[in-house]
Design goal:
Length: 322
């Protein structure tokens, strides 16, 4: 559905996006994450055709955006980071104006406006001047114009910005419903939002793609957590014989219970599910008390922090070398 190939964007000497490639399939809801200035908004603007890449290619439904810009833009609903509404207009006037820009008129425009207002729960404010609305309601107007034509692709930059908890929950439900027929890219600083509505996450760090993973794979982790009644030395000696394990590290001790993390070798084509029974067999066979063995479960916040801590370490090493 959406594919970027070695995407690059430069602003003078500043490299905002650096060799980013990914593919998003039809019907996916993808979270685009990264710190301010990481390149998220620039990537979104290039996919919408608002910005031209300095290098690389963008394809939507197999069409090259360089050659089919208007055709692709007709498929996209876009909410920029700073919600572009005209403050002197009423909500209905603004949506009518947006419908006209989209080539809708008459009954088709009326139906589209009713749909947008209903989906974003704007009925109580439909005749109000936008300048009188709270930030949350203005944000809903922005989402309304993005979904006006029920587009095949929705690109939403900070869509829940300024919303209260009940409004955020409503938006989550709306995105889940829209995701049944549309491909959605959501950029947000709220990691819980991504975990709540997205199938997959792309993390951008310093203009580069640092992670591309489904939420299911991300949560699984790549380590086993083991709790036994023995200290590190005998456990390490015992588990040295288990094929596929790379490292055994003591995480914590609580009384007579020792908890370890077991890391796999990357070159071994063995899953954690295959290694766990071998570890358990070794532990029990040696007469150790096995309290627990389970696969590590990580949340998005943990992964995001790990990626950015690695970035800080890398920058420090580069500065030291210089």
């Amino acid at each position: 559905m959406i594919e970027t190939k070695r995407l690059v964007k430069k602003y003078g000497d500043t490299l905002a996006v650096d060799d980013v490639s990914f593919r998003i399939e039809k019907g996916e809801i993808v979270g685009l994450l990264g710190h301010n200035g990481a390149g998220k908004t620039t990537i979104m603007k290039m996919i919408t055709g608002f910005l031209e890449p300095s290098a690389g290619k963008i394809y939507v439904d197999g069409l090259n955006i360089d050659e089919h810009r208007q055709t692709i833009q007709a498929k996209i609903g876009y909410l920029p980071e700073n919600c572009p509404v005209y403050p002197e207009m009423t909500v209905v006037d603004y949506l009518e104006y947006t419908a006209a820009l989209r080539g809708l008129d008459g009954e088709a425009a009326e139906d589209a406006i009713k749909y947008a207002i209903t989906q974003t729960s704007l009925q109580p404010k439909a005749l109000d001047v936008i300048n009188t609305l709270s930030r949350g309601y203005r944000q809903r107007v922005g989402v309304g114009q993005a979904i006006l034509t029920q587009p095949e692709i929705l690109i939403l930059d900070e869509p829940t910005n300024g919303l209260d908890p009940s409004q955020i929950q409503h938006m989550r439900e709306l995105f889940a419903e829209l995701g049944k027929t549309a491909t959605i890219i959501i950029s947000t600083h709220i990691l819980k939002e991504v975990e709540a509505v997205c199938d997959r996450v792309l993390i951008i760090r310093d203009g580069r793609l640092a992670l591309d993973s489904t939420l299911t794979d991300l949560r699984r982790g790549q380590r086993l957590l083991l709790s036994v009644d023995q200290p590190i030395e005998p456990v390490q000696r015992l588990l040295n014989d288990v094929s596929g394990l790379q490292n055994v590290e003591l995480m914590e001790q609580r009384g007579k219970v020792f908890q370890y993390s077991l890391e796999m070798k990357n070159e071994e084509k063995l899953s954690l599910e295959m290694i766990a029974p071998r570890v358990a067999s070794q532990i029990v066979g040696a007469g150790f008390a096995l309290y627990e063995i389970r696969q590590e479960v990580r949340d998005l916040e943990t992964v995001f922090r790990e990626i950015n801590v690695a970035d800080v370490i890398e920058e420090g090493e580069q500065a030291h070398a210089a």
